Every structure is written in structure tokens, then in C-alpha cells.
Amino acid sequence: MNGQIISQLLQRDLEKLKQELLLYRDETLIWKTVAGISNSAGNLCLHLVGNLNTYIGAELGQSGYIRNREQEFSQKDIQRDELIRKIENTILVVSQSTPTLTRRSISTGISFTRIKGKDQHRLFPDPSGRAPGLSSRTNQLSPQNTGGRIT
Predict the structure, then answer these.
(1) What angle do CA 34, 40, 42 make, to 5 degrees?
(2) Against a cut of 0.85, is the pTM above it?
(3) Secondary structure of the chain in the HEC alphabet?
């Protein structure tokens, strides 16, 4: 898989996220949760945008993005148009940051040391063949404290 394919997949999924937000007839429901679901669609959207802007934009693309992860879950009632603008900006970041990735850089892996000031995470698999950093559950990049790996 090369950078162009990664870019296309991420852009496709971000476009789908925009479509999903537009399906809400009542915009306030974007910020509602129901029993058994701890995060609203709006907060998950902010979290996904934060993840991609951090790992793709700031780390790969050197965009200068500074993440405030806590706000991704504490902000509420942002208008749908603003969420869509954030998604569109993220699509631009992805399109500018990923196409130059090579097969070699992807297979070698890219380490991150700025998370929590000391943890080291890898975006792509190491030579041992461990799974890449895309979470199969959410199709997003998500750092977890799993021995310094993104899973």
C-alpha cells in the first residue's frame, strides 16, 4: 500500500463522515447520547479530526497542528457547518501529507514521541509484522497505552 492509496482511503472515509452528519434532520441530535453510548457523534467527529490532524498532519505533514484531546470530548453544540468545515480541512491535510509516503517508509514505520511528552507510538507495522495503526473498530488512528503501539 502506498501513500496515494492511504490518502484515497482516508479521504473516502472522511467524505462518508460528512454524509453521515448531513443525515441528521435535527442538528442538535449530533450531540446527544443514549444509554450504552458514551460519546456523541459530534464528539467522535472531533476526536477523529484530532487524531488525523495529529498523526497525519502534524507528524507526517509537519502542519504545526497542536492537539487538545480533552476538548474533543468536552466541546458540545458546535454547529454542523463547523464540523463539516473541520472535516474538509482534514481532507486537505490528508491529501497534502500522505501521497509522498513510500512503500519503504510505510513498512519501516514512523515513530511518534510527542504523545504525553514521553510515550512512543508507531503509525505503521514494525518488521515483526504487528498490525498497522488503523483501528478495525473505528477505522481511525487511535493511540492506546498498549506497550507504546497504536492498535
Answers:
(1) 150
(2) no
(3) CCHHHHHHHHHHHHHHHHHHHHCCCCHHHHHCCCCCCCCCHHHHHHHHHHHHHHHHHHHHCCCCCCCCHHHHHHCCCCCHHHHHHHHHHHHHHHHHHCCCCCHHHHHHCCEEEEECCCEEEECCCCCCCCCCCECCCCCCECECCCCCCEC
Q: Would you state the pLDDT for residue 104?
A: 57
Given a contact cutoff of 8 angstroms between Cβ atoms, the answer to whether 7 and 99 are in contact is yes
Q: Which of 142, 64, 133 is nearest to 96 (CA)?
A: 64
Mean pLDDT (whole number) for 92-113: 71
Cell of 151: 492498535
